[in-house]
């Protein structure tokens, strides 16, 4: 019954979107995406297991086997939705009368001004490059899930997937200027208002395409966390977009409408995946989903020209990445899995540890580990006789939450991390619109 009500709502929204806003069609496609993903997951999951795409749920008694890489279904549904969305997005430009020879005599919106009447090929190419980039990301993510690539190889995959986006950016927009904040201008007086970063701007965009997907992939290991953090990121982005769409300047409205158009359908497919991946997980999302979700936010930030704000939303992921660096760069041993340790006796999660007796950390890290322990940023185990460090907790935000708040059940742990992420994200957005205007001298939204 609920499905029929949802689908009827989607149909009505699709119909009325023609006269109002394409955002209504985005909500309709989000509902359709939710339904399609929710129906497809249980239907096709056994086929994934059949071809060997399954994983052990390491934090459950008996480590049951469940289908892996199911996020690929959400990603594929999303891509198809985005294809079907094109006519609704460009509805007002559809030609209804032509005298032939390619003339666009009458389009759906007859009342449009002449310059508005021209089909926005630039916008269309931007949209298609975003979809193409996401499609390449899904392909490379699938390669990782199928062949379990090494970290040193898979780390750079998203930059390869972002090539279509960067090339279209170069051809269509090509702006490589960044605004110089007012504070900098008072320290170093200059008449310039912007700085041209040239090729470095492309390196910056490629780095963002690498960072967002990988940072989601390494904040993982607890049921529901990969998809849960993506939903929270999507929600905070939408809060920010709504601020601009209601109070923003015309130029910023364009960018944030584009962001909302990509994120609303994403939330639909991600919520359906969350239903199956939340504790106790019936499926795993796989690296395909982490790359795909991360890439959505880089695409939105790059094409919307608000990549700094996008990075603000990634504060927990950035912290987790920076905190993980000693292990990622081999200064401290890094086990294959750094997820928390499950205790079968009480069903609780405890911080997992890196054993340092056989494989000691680099010498330079010994005082750092002791300092981090004093600051309660890790927990170390010291040999009573030799005073040597025997082990330390793995450096992930998940383990840190357990060090601070004590052992807890897996679902509580996931919810705690998502609540922290939501609070930080909303605070960051508030700070962006208060401190941002102090630093740059203006903000693109005008509070009454
Ligand atoms: C990243 C992390 C790794 C973490 C893993 C969990 C780094 C450098 N890598 O590796 O520490 O352990 O994600 O996804 O930080 N699994 C569960 N429960 C879950 C999610 C995953 O048991 O809720 C296990 C399953 O066995 C599953 C496997 O993790 O098969 C998936 O791991 P994978 O995504 O391949 O790990 P990485 O992304 O390489
Ligand atoms: Mg992973």
Automatic annotation (TrEMBL):
This is UDP-N-acetylglucosamine--dolichyl-phosphate N-acetylglucosaminephosphotransferase. Pathway: Protein modification; protein glycosylation. GO terms for molecular function: glycosyltransferase activity; metal ion binding; UDP-N-acetylglucosamine-dolichyl-phosphate N-acetylglucosaminephosphotransferase activity. The chain crosses the membrane at residues 70-91, 155-180, 200-220, 227-246, 258-276, 288-306, 312-332, 417-440. InterPro entries: Glycosyl_transferase_4, GPT. The keyword S-adenosyl-L-methionine does not apply. UDP-N-acetylglucosamine--dolichyl-phosphate N-acetylglucosaminephosphotransferase that operates in the biosynthetic pathway of dolichol-linked oligosaccharides, the glycan precursors employed in protein asparagine (N)-glycosylation. The assembly of dolichol-linked oligosaccharides begins on the cytosolic side of the endoplasmic reticulum membrane and finishes in its lumen. The sequential addition of sugars to dolichol pyrophosphate produces dolichol-linked oligosaccharides containing fourteen sugars, including two GlcNAcs, nine mannoses and three glucoses.
């Amino acid at each position: 019954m609920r499905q029929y009500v949802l689908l009827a709502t989607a149909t009505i929204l699709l119909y009325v979107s023609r006269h109002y806003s394409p955002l209504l069609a985005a909500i309709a496609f989000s509902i359709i995406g939710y339904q399609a993903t929710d129906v497809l997951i249980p239907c096709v999951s056994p086929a994934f297991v059949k071809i060997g795409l399954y994983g052990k749920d390491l934090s459950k008694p008996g480590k049951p086997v469940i289908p892996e890489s199911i996020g690929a279904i959400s990603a594929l549904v999303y891509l198809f939705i985005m294809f079907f969305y094109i006519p609704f997005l460009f509805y007002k430009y559809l030609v209804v009368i032509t005298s032939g020879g390619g003339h666009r005599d009458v389009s759906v919106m007859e009342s449009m001004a002449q310059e508005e009447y021209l089909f926005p090929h630039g916008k269309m190419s931007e949209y298609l490059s975003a979809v193409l980039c996401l499609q390449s990301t899904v392909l490379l993510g699938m390669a990782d899930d199928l062949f379990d690539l090494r970290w040193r190889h898979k780390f750079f995959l998203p930059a390869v997937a972002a090539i279509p986006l960067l090339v279209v950016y170069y051809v269509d927009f090509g702006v490589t200027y960044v605004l110089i904040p007012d504070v900098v201008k008072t320290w170093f007086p200059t008449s310039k208002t912007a700085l041209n970063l040239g090729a470095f701007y492309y390196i910056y965009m490629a780095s963002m395409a690498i960072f967002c997907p990988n940072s989601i992939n390494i904040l993982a290991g607890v049921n529901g966390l990969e998809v849960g953090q993506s939903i929270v990121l999507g929600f905070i982005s939408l809060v920010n977009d709504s601020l601009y769409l209601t109070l923003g300047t015309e130029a910023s409205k364009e960018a944030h409408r584009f962001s909302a158009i990509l994120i609303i359908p994403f939330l639909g497919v991600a919520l359906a995946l969350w239903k199956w991946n939340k504790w106790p997980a019936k499926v795993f999302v796989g690296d395909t989903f982490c790359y795909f979700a991360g890439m959505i936010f880089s695409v939105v930030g790059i094409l919307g020209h608000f990549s700094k704000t996008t990075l603000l939303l990634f504060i927990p992921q950035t912290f987790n990445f920076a905190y993980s660096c000693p292990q990622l760069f081999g200064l401290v041993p890094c086990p294959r899995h750094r997820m928390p340790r499950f205790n079968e006796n009480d069903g609780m999660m405890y911080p997992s540890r890196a054993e340092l007796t056989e494989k000691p950390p680099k010498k330079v890290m010994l005082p750092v580990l002791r300092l981090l322990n004093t600051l309660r940023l890790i927990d170390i185990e010291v040999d009573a006789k030799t005073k040597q460090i025997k082990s330390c907790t793995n450096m992930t935000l998940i383990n840190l939450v357990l060090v601070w708040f004590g052992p807890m059940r897996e679902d509580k742990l996931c919810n705690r991390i998502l609540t922290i992420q939501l609070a930080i994200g909303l605070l960051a957005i508030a700070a962006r619109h208060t401190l941002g205007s102090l630093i740059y001298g203006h903000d693109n939204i005008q509070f009454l």
